[in-house]
Design a protein that fits this description.
43% of the residues lie in helices and 20% in strands. The chain has seven helices and seven strands, in the order αβαβββαβαβαβαα. The chain is globular and about 40 Å long.
């Protein structure tokens, strides 16, 4: 039997359109570390492909996976952010799909962690950025950029927090 929170997550997910962006956080140590290092309320970003699947980048690379891994997980909370009007949803989904099978970008994570520990400016993170490798927020930001959205930061430097506020601010401006 589904908990009321999981039932609500299912309802939110089913009401979302293909291409809508979801931000998540979990009550796990890994999620806490990511949120702490990035100073973000979220540790992960994924995109709805259809009513049963999402596309995301995680340690296994860029893949289409069952949405149930988030919707049925008691430890995970999600938040939906609709695509802003400036983004063509068909181009966005096509760009995401084109990146499926790419590897995860561990280098940019190492660069980000080093810049935090050594108090270096953010641009130095790009020194370890892997070409055609993606973190979750980088995957979504790159695909959004290709579909018409502009960002103040290079997409390789965008954290879940940066992406969340970029999308929310665009949405509120429309």
């Amino acid at each position: 039997m589904k908990s009321s929170e999981n039932s609500l997550k299912h309802d939110i997910f089913l009401a979302a359109a293909s291409g809508d962006v979801f931000f998540s956080r979990s009550r796990t140590f890994r999620s806490w570390v990511i949120r702490f290092v990035t100073r973000s309320p979220f540790s992960h970003v994924f995109v709805k492909v259809n009513d049963r699947a999402v596309i995301e980048a995680d340690v296994g690379g860029v893949k289409i996976r069952p949405a149930a891994r988030y919707l049925d997980d008691e430890l995970t909370s999600i938040e939906l952010v609709k695509l802003p009007a400036c983004v063509d949803p068909d181009v966005f989904i096509a760009e995401l799909n084109q990146r499926a099978g790419s590897f995860y970008d561990y280098g940019i994570l190492a660069g980000g962690l080093l810049s935090k520990l050594l108090k270096l400016s953010r641009w130095r993170e790009n020194l370890l950025n892997g070409v055609s490798r993606y973190t979750c927020s980088e995957l979504v930001a790159e695909s959004l950029k290709a579909a018409g959205m502009q960002f103040k930061l290079p997409t390789s430097q965008i954290t879940p927090k940066d992406l969340y506020y970029s999308l929310k601010n665009r949405d509120e401006a429309n």
